[in-house]
Amino acid sequence: MATEQRVMALNGDEAVAWAVKQCNVDFVAAYPITPQTLIVERFSEFVANGEVKTEFVAVESEHSALSACIGAAAVGARAFTATAANGLALMWEIVYIASSLRLPIVMAIVNRALSGPICIHCDHGDSMGCRDAGWIQIYCEDSQEVYDTIIQAFRIGEHPKVQLPVMVMLDGFVLSHTLQNVSLLPDEVVRQFVGYRKPVEIEVPYLGKVPMILDPDNPLTFGPLDLYDYYFEHKMQQHEAMKNARPVIKQVNEEYYKISGRKYGDGFIDCYGVEDADVATIVLGSTAGTVRSVVKKLREKGYKVGVVRLRTFRPFPAEEIIEALKHVKVIGVLDRSGPFGGFGAPVFLETRAAFYDQADRPIIVNYVYGLGGRDMHPGLIKQVYDDLLKILETRRVERIVKFIGVRE
Amino acid sequence: MSELKSWREVPIAGVCWKLSTEFKTGDWRTFRPVIDQEKCVKCLTCWIYCPDGAVEWNGERVDINYEYCKGCGICANECPVKAIKMVLE
To answer: Cβ contact (<8 Å) for B14 and A206?
Structure first.
């Protein structure tokens, strides 16, 4: 049975800070950037008040923030950082190094449009840019899920068969700066759930089995030159780790349900109204709530429509999406990042590719929306469903990729 | 080179399964540092500065380990009494 919980009015950033506070985090390094700033501000207050024992380092850039987390994680610490947009862009080379060194760092990304022109509002262009960097990526719908997912992220990334860093995404301002009632588990319940980080063991001939950490008594070499003879093998291991993450994400979602009474679909996707639907959309993040309310109204009018909220984007849940939507005839994929020069935007491309081998595959179209924080209000979502219902009726697609909410 | 291992066999994260000392890097060298033991005042400045730990001190004299010295010349540059000369290999 779920534990008794304390309800607090928190915005998404504060929900991150509270979760990190309860997760026995040894090390935090961060640099402020809107709309991530509140995470680190709140957390530094916890440090200053002595409420956590975390080593907190105020670094001079995001490149240094993630580098410092790598150093800490390499000696066995549990490390956390947070950033957004241009901050993530400045981290770029280190993002890949964290995943290839197999360090289970957790990083909150407060989704914000990348410059230029400079814009502080939400779109997913920042985290989508590093979708192939070897990090697990989980997109949250509300601040409650943000709190819950940060806690889950440590368990997922630190699983012995995974050992990968995890990005937890929350939409800038829509979630980061909007108050919501968030149920917090008691400290000891979270602490018990996440435990302390246990580095995996590694076997090297000159030492035998030792913990995979930097330790002068058991010297290991991290990050050496790795050329055409072994680089590919190490990339295969990362690919395998992503595969191993699939059951772990589901299992942690279920285990977390037992302590909190909350779970998010199967950990990968969260469906609404799709069981009997002819038409469905796939959407990430906070927009899902608005889409669901539109779907509810349309269903009340008798339309067979549904929505799949995609929670985990890496690893991509192709099988789960196909299973959920195998009977659907028209799918609209909503992407909050630009497809410049591509056939479509990222979620659309993955979805369409996943369905290619299905004998009776649906029509799949792409709607790009909300760039730079442009509001995706119910009226626009209604337009998307009207368009999809028209495609269902006529079986004709005018344009595969459409831009919703931009002035023509 | 020994037989190449599969991705299932090698340690994750690119961690080396051999000690770094097994990789002899002395043959990278173009210039070799030669210490004039008469001039050397045993201040160990070279020992501190060597980026590869190739300067050895046995309590009595300073020597260069040519199995690892890459010949960068930092020791010669830093030596306060100019006791180290870089000699073409």
So the answer is: no
